[in-house]
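ping. complex inputs:
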Amino acid sequence: MSTLRYLARKVAWLVVTLYGVVTFNFLLFHVLPGNPVRLLARSGHLTPQAVAEIDRVFGLNHPLGLQYLIYLRDLLHGQLGISYTYREPVSQLLGQYLGNTILLLAGATILTIVLGTLAGVVAARRRGGGFDSMTVTASVIGWALPTFWTGLILVFLLGVWLHAFPIFGMQTPNAVYASPLQHAQDVISHLFLPTLTLVVVNIAQFVLVARAAVIEVLAEDFMVTALAKGLAPRRILWRHAVRNALLPIVTNSALLIGMVVAGAIEVETVFSWPGMGLLVYNSVLNRDYPVIEAAFLVFAVVVLLVNFASDLLYQALDPRVRES
Amino acid sequence: MPVQGQQAGRADAGPAAGEMAQTGSSRRRFLQRAGLLALAVPGASTLLEACASVVASAKASTIRVGWTIEPDTMNPLTAYSTESVEVTQLIYDQLMQYDLELKPEPGLATSWSYSPDGKTITYRLRTGVRWHDGRPFSAADAAFTFELIKSKQIGNFGQWLADMVTARAPDPATLEVTFTRPQAFNPGLAIPILPRHIWQGMSFAQIQKYQNIPAIGTGPYKFGNWRHGQSIEVDRNDDWWGSQPAAKKITWILFQNEDVMAQGLRTGAVDICPEVPPTIWDGLAGAAKIKTVSMKSFSFHHIGINVSDNPRSGGNPLLKDRVVRQALAYAVDRQQLVNVALAGHGIPGSVILMPAFEEYFLKIPASQQYDANPDKARALLDAAGYALKPGSQVRTAKNGKPLSFRLIAIESTSVDVAAAQLFRDACAKVGIQLTLTTLDANSLGNTVYNAQAPNWDIFVWGWDSGVNDPSYMLSVPLCSQIGSNNDVYYCNRHYDQLYDEQAVELNHARRVALVHEAQQFYYDDCAYIVMWYQAKLQAYRTDTWKGWTPLDGGIILNFTRDNYLKVKPV
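pong. complex structure:
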């Protein structure tokens, strides 16, 4: 019963937050200086009448309050509008770019979390040893490297010098594939460098958090008890120490996954990966309100859902959260 | 058509990436020395290399173009970017096209003639031409396109038909277009012919929201596919009326980063890059199997001065004194701007037409240019009573107001920011104070074009000529363009009259003389300080396609599509 009430409260908060985000997004971009039609008018030698007509077609002639109400109405009907730049339904555009971004970042994020945590745990177990100092140093160096620069270095080393990996795009342009498997291979080879870049620059946060958390737990009295009971050291580490050290890792993962949908603009730029980061960047420059609003809505929904999920996961992992 | 917003965008992409290229390549050399190769895992790389080579496609049949700006739409009536035109000009034919010398050549029209009063143009059209969907093309389609653009005033093309009265098709192979006055520029060179059976009956709003995929035209290539953010492909139309081009496909590949684009050219992933930033271009010069080409462009960057007569203008009224504007022009050295901001890849600026217009371009002798003469600037200001008070760095007018102005530039266009800084420092030396603020392109556009109350003093921006005719650039300072393209709110009856005279002058020599007069007049008024005409820097591979012909405006991404149609596989 209390779980149900807890859930209901969380869901109510979710809805209120979403409404706040929607309103804030709308206001934020509409009060920015600039206007989506103005630059088109300059380029095209448009007459003022033609500009007014375009304003009318996209509903930009209405006062801000009315535009807001129309936006809310359309949103409730599931309509995200038409991009001013591409003149294409926003849902269609967003679908493509979101898919690309998830393809790139899902793998990179899972690898970062899993490899980082494993390395951190092993480093904590052999604290002060060679593996420990090497892992910590390497991951901190990775953390300190600028993403853009790391990407370019990998392009030069593995792409241009060794010709080992394609350096741009999601697939070979004009490629004719004999089978879906070959297509998948092509996409995977294109994924390699951007994924490597993301893992290199992000892994430190998991290595260091996992290492610190495990070291802390290993110093607790119950670890000595477990050892005294005669449990195998491996079992002590993974079943008792790591499980207790998972909370900060879950928090970190929730943060990282929340950022996944927002794209990774630096990596997308280096590897010409058509993801959300670039779509949003270009849309802000073009004042393409429908695209920006829809993209930020998606970001907000994902962040909220991930946080919601991590709240639930806390409960499963740690009884103390349940009680409080 | 080459579009202001877009153009600024492109100019901006170039130099920023140019800096990046510099650091990138020097770091590459460092790494080569440091021998960091050991980092690579040889086993994994050979495996993946094998995968990659399996999917590599037949190169000789496809032209692969690398660029960094994505077209906005395939709908030619709502497209604003040069990149969109680059693709749609291969899908749609015009009545007339430009050849590789930028001279008119037959398109859908085999010939054209003017009536004795010059107000009617009669085009003889090809017969037996079919749309990509198999329907027959006729003069009715051409008449429909002209009438549609005239009546709806949509997009870029309305300006060429502003004087049009009617377009009619007396028979399936004849189009007659009548204007209120003679047309020095033949609009057959600018308007893509659309299929009536697809566009008929659409309202303004419907056209504005129309994606036009797949685009159906009569041109040498058919729309293939468009992967947003990645590439656009067109396929050869084997039923085209002209001689068959060699390339079965053309693909434009989008890069988000010029540096990686240049690497793509080196590794053979693309065949030609039509927009290469100066420092990257320098780096490509001399690379194996790559040819770099520098050509004149139809573009310039300029300093614009607010000369609005609008009582609600927030511009500093001192700038309406021509002497002050001439002093600003004299203060700065154009050659220095080219050397510093463009790494030398440009021609110092003067008049509002670009040198690529050849005979239309007015060459002003160096001694008569407002350029690189701070002493003259000081003398002019002294004579006009803008005195330097002892101990002050800034001159003041007789009414006590200082010569202190706001200067705005687009922050991401690093050439413009560099130029603005040089300009500011040069002006300080003659006693004029400029305060530089940088904005994003959209905000700057909105500030400059706030026609109700333009509240700014001086900006840095640029222009591309939308067509290969002087009228596009010359029309910018017209009184009638205030509220549209006129970015400095210049308005002068004499200039307007010169423009009108040249626009209806069908005699070439007389038109050239009028165009020269208009340029000189506007130049002397110094509302524009043209900083430079940047070079068009392109690069292509020599081992895939041969026969790329350099010309004013560029091998591709130019007013002519013929290079795509004429190249042959090596």
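Chain A has one domain: 91-323.
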